[in-house]
Design a protein that fits this description.
The chain has six helices and 15 strands. By secondary structure, it is of the alpha/beta class. The chain has a three-stranded mixed sheet, with helices on one face. The protein has a three-stranded mixed sheet with strand order 3-4-5, covered by helices on one side. Strand 12 and strand 13 form a beta hairpin.
Length: 259
């Protein structure tokens, strides 16, 4: 059986020059485009070094947040599901992803609505899929996803994203089938009671959005305590600059679809 962190392919999209106009909960200043592009190139290099074949899509200037491709779709072994992004200004990103997924999958389904669901709120643990209710994902979207994936043998569990947190995976990451990296505030909700939980370091909540890719855990640079905890737990850690995407509330998982 393939482990939940084993991947062979990924899809990314280049940052656009319009990224300065991307959505954000708190204005931390406009991202530096050159640094953002450099960090994104390094991210793709790490994915390839981990053994993935990466499809790099061109920038979409009309969609400032389109670098965050994870929100557009859910990629499962049986097929892909095009999602329904909760932010109205981002809805066109899903249509822009459709042709790529159709070229890679025999089966591509769509969330029709009226509900909304963002990929950043979806954490897959093999057959079990946790979906966090948030400002971008509602109960109707979760219910439709559950109906779509049931014939493929997946079970969806609805959980709650902490108040003020953009996406469920803003505060957590899957490290292996039984281990979660989580912020203390999300772990306190009890949604990971059946898992081993590694907590982020004090004041390092932004490190929670990491990605396990084959033998590596990719984690945002600048969070030494969390990185040390991961190494002490036996994981091979690779640090990546995420400073500019963080200004747009983006984490490392947001930057790719992995399957």
């Amino acid at each position: 059986m393939t482990n939940v962190y084993q991947f062979t392919r990924a899809i990314t999209r280049a940052p656009s020059s319009s990224s300065a106009h991307g959505l954000r909960a708190v204005d931390r200043g406009a991202p530096d485009l050159a640094r953002m592009q450099s960090a994104h190139a390094a991210y793709v290099t790490h994915l390839r070094a981990a053994g993935l074949q990466v499809t790099e899509l061109p920038a979409l200037e009309e969609f400032p947040d389109s670098v965050f491709v994870e929100d557009t779709a859910l990629c499962l072994p049986q097929g892909a599901i095009l999602l329904r992004i909760g932010a109205p200004t981002r809805s066109g990103e899903v249509a822009a992803m459709a042709s790529t997924l159709h070229s890679l999958y025999d089966s591509v389904l769509h969330i029709e609505g009226p509900g909304f669901i963002d990929g950043g709120d979806i954490l897959c643990r093999g057959r079990d899929i946790l979906v966090g209710l948030s400002a971008r994902t509602d109960a109707a979207g979760v219910a439709e996803l559950a109906r779509k994936v049931a014939p493929w043998g997946h079970v969806v569990r609805e959980v709650i994203t902490p108040p003020g947190v953009l996406h469920f995976k803003t505060d957590c990451s899957l490290l292996d089938s039984n281990t979660i990296l989580s912020t203390p505030r999300l772990a306190a909700s009890g949604c990971f009671q059946d898992c081993r939980v590694i907590l982020t370091g004090d004041a390092e909540e932004a490190a929670a959005n990491a990605i396990r890719v084959n033998d590596w855990v990719l984690v945002a640079a600048g969070f030494p305590v969390t990185a040390l905890k991961l190494r002490e737990a036996g994981y091979s850690v690779q640090k990546i600059d995420n400073s500019e995407c963080a200004k747009l509330d983006g984490g490392l998982s947001c930057l790719s679809l992995r399957f």
